[in-house]
Amino acid sequence: MIQELRHPVSPLHDLHGRHLEYLRLSLTDVCNFRCSYCLPDGYRKPKHAPAPLSLEEICRLVRGFATVGLWKIRLTGGEPTLRAGFEDIAATIAAVPGISRVAMTTNGYRLSERAGAYRAAGITAINVSIDSLIPDRFSAITGHDRLSEVLAGLDAARAAGFDCIKVNTVLMRDVNDDELDAIVDFVAGKDISLRFIEVMRTNDNPDFFTRHHLPGASVASRLERCGWSRIAHQAGAGPAIEYVHPDATGRIGIIAPYSRDFCASCNRVRVSASGRLHLCLFGDGSVDLRPLLRSDDQHDELVNRILCLTYGKPSAHRLHSGNSGTTPHLASIGG
User: Fold this and answer.
1) What is the per-residue DSSP string for 274-314?
2) What's the rounded Cα separation, in Å, for the pair 194 and 254?
3) Which CATH architecture has domain 22-332?
4) Are 212 and 37 contacting, i.e. CB atoms less than 8 angstroms apart?
5) Considering the chain, what is the average pLDDT of its residues?
6) Are the C-beta atoms of residues 83 and 27 closer than 8 Å to each other?
7) Can you tell me the mean pLDDT for 111-118?
8) What distance in Å separates the CA atoms of residue 224 and residue 314, rounded to the nearest whole number?
9) Residue 332 DSSP code
10) CA distance 267 to 74
């Protein structure tokens, strides 16, 4: 379980000296895709599932984190755009004093229609999941024949004027690893970034992980042989190691949770759709913040609770030993 410590050294620093500045906030655990590495059988509502946080509760939560110096929010799911009132939620968060960046991660559902509305709501950065550029393979991975729709959504996002656009690709051995060069070429000439993400073992996918895990280090070596160079980590950025190429407009990032010291620069915490604080994606426990979100009068108590809990953030996950904590699948707390 998460250990609560009483005396943090400074706002949103943990006991390992890491500055926590980035909240991944899940708006729903519902997803309409059936990705083979996450929800191969589709979303199934858990028994006795609590209702997601209300708009008012979300606003109080974000104000609490902003008070102690957090400035970046990423809206996740499930598929966050399935949440009723998604744009109102985004606009409310973007208006909270101290929050300077609101990002979202999406499977691209209806993005071609809604990209402009998302940008108008105050979202400045967007990640779109595209695991294959081959229509039949995309359909096999996601359970939906929607590659052309998702690619149109990516174009719509570029037209909408987001400050930052990224493509997320889960790289899987014997599934899509033969597309590495094609996917790199796809983004190299565009002002977008690509994120190759290692398959991660969760409690629901151990066999899939064993068959299809591909170490990020092998991809990094391949990029370096092709002239890509690693660059310094930027403030507020996620966990990716980024690469640039003198002849490319786009950037390539690798998210490799099984690499050495992956957790050393972790700058984020997660809150589930129902208001539970997770200090690590693969941690053993969580703490329910919802009782402190009922009234504006609880703000100071919420802030103190956040400070104490985040100070006790664990130094690292235990994926290397086959321990995925209590995470059933990535959609459960936002990946």
Assistant:
1) TSEEESSTT-S--EE-GGGSS-GGGHHHHHHHHHHHHHT--
2) 8
3) Alpha-Beta Barrel (3.20)
4) yes
5) 88
6) yes
7) 98
8) 32
9) G
10) 13
CB 63 within 8 A of CB 299: yes
- Residue 280 tokens, joined: 């690590």
**Which residue is listed with tokens 């500055």?**
19
Flag whether pLDDT at 159 surpasses 60.
yes
The DSSP code for 54 is P
Residue 191's pLDDT band, with cuts at 50, 70 and 90, is confident
Type of residue at 304: N
User: Of the candidates 116, 126, 124, which has an alpha carbon nearest to the alpha carbon of residue 93?
Assistant: 124
Where does the chain show beta strands of DSSP type E?
22-26, 72-76, 101-106, 125-129, 164-171, 193-198, 229-230, 241-244, 251-255, 268-271, 276-278, 287-288
Which of 209, 204, 187, 205 lies closest to 196 in space, CA to CA?
A: 187
How far is it, in rounded angstroms, from Cα 111 to Cα 128?
Answer: 9
Residue 58, token pair as written in the block:
């979300």
CA distance 188 to 295: 48
Give long-range contacts, CB 8 A cutoff, 24+ apart: 56-61.
56/293, 57/275, 57/290, 57/293, 57/294, 58/25, 58/27, 58/89, 58/92, 58/93, 59/92, 59/93, 59/96, 60/293, 60/296, 60/298, 60/299, 60/302, 61/25, 61/271, 61/275, 61/289, 61/293, 61/302
Q: CA-to-CA distance for 33 and 293, rounded, in angstroms? A: 31
* Residue 33, amino acid: F
